[in-house]
Amino acid sequence: MDNIPILKIGSALLVTIQVDMHDQLATRLQEDLTTMIVKSHARGVLIDISALEIVDSFIGRMLANIASLSRLLDADTVVVGMRPEVAITLVELGLGLPGVKTALNAERGLTMIGGVSGGTEDDEDDDD
Amino acid sequence: MATATVASDLAKLLADGENTIIKGWLTALQKTGDGRISTQEVESQARDLLRALTKAVSDGATDVESHSFNDVRAILEGFSRSRALQGFSPSETATFVFSIKEPLFEQIRSKIKNAETIAEQTWAVTQLIDKLGLFTIEAFQRTREELIARQREEIEELSTPVVKLWDGVLALPLIGTLDSARTQVVMQNLLESIVREGAEIAILDITGVPTVDTLVAQHLLKTISAARLMGADCIISGIRPQIAQTIVQLGVQLNVVSKATLADAFAMALTRTGRKVTRIKTQASNGGTAPPAAE
What we know:
The complex is a heterodimer.
Chain A: E1 6-9, E2 12-16, H1 23-40, E3 44-48, H2 57-72, E4 76-80, H3 84-92, E5 101-103, H4 106-117
Parallel strand pairs in A: 2-3, 3-4, 4-5
Antiparallel strand pairs in A: 1-2
Chain B: H1 3-16, H2 18-32, H3 39-58, H4 70-86, H5 90-98, H6 101-111, H7 115-159, E1 163-166, E2 169-175, H8 180-197, E3 201-208, H9 214-229, E4 233-237, H10 241-250, E5 257-259, H11 262-272, E6 277-278, E7 293-294
Parallel strand pairs in B: 2-3, 3-4, 4-5
Antiparallel strand pairs in B: 1-2, 6-7
Helix pairs in contact in B: 1-3, 1-7, 2-3, 2-6, 3-4, 4-7, 5-7, 6-7, 8-9
């Protein structure tokens, strides 16, 4: 059975979802992720869904679940890279993903998590 | 009697009695006219149409859709178009064509002696003029529809701009009522701009929204929630006092940061992105003319 790789970057974990999710895969991901958070003392979880063209209520619920799980283990969850059409669909479905933090791309997401632990704060000032 | 004979008789009638018919036609038109178009113009239009009609029926044709009637149709189309743009009503426009009946019938009555032929000719003329009248109304309607479609496009283009205020700060000045279709367009524009500009903050300015009811509020919240999913924060600005009262009275919960004016919202956006506006110190002691600059 295939699984979704979880990468450790600094104090954050990066999960990139590229395949269609199904029940088993989602359960497996949640188990792996919780184990990883505890093992690596991660402060944040980045979930990159930029490759997903369709996000249904199932994935929406999975994201909310992961966010709740991580919060219990003292890690922030940031969903990054959502496409405009996906955002519109989710809102129309009434899934605003409350309790999940969001960022435009993985870099911004890392900054958000880094800001908590005082990591990569400085890259804000070079854009003027 | 064959159609061709009827047509050629009619052509002869029209050609012989051109001036009489024009005179009668103009008299009939003056009864209904209101002076928006000069008599000379009406006369020249009438004459053009009558000549084209004479030419068409002298070819032996009585079918308005046929090739011989090309000129007549072109004249009527141009005429309906100009009337539609000048703001005439459909019946006023059609009356122009229908007014020719009276002088034409008189012409038939005075020139033809045989009662049966009169009846036949009258019927042919009635059919012909009715068709021309219908054609005029259709052309009139087409012009109006084109006009409406063009205006709708213009309004749509005008009403959904996304403006970049600063690096990472977008503004969305909403003008007009937010219905579902427009919310969809606004949302799409906003989200695409967020991706393109890498924006962190979007300011929704509702100064131009006349009323905020529960439905509009829901549409606003949808837009805000979609922008949040893309990682951008939203600030609402430009809530007028009456609208604030309506929102509270309706019990709508707008759980977003809101500011009274776009300027306040922009200042807040700058603060949040770690910038501030300062006045450049000038030599003059009153020095109030220098433009503010963000650092």
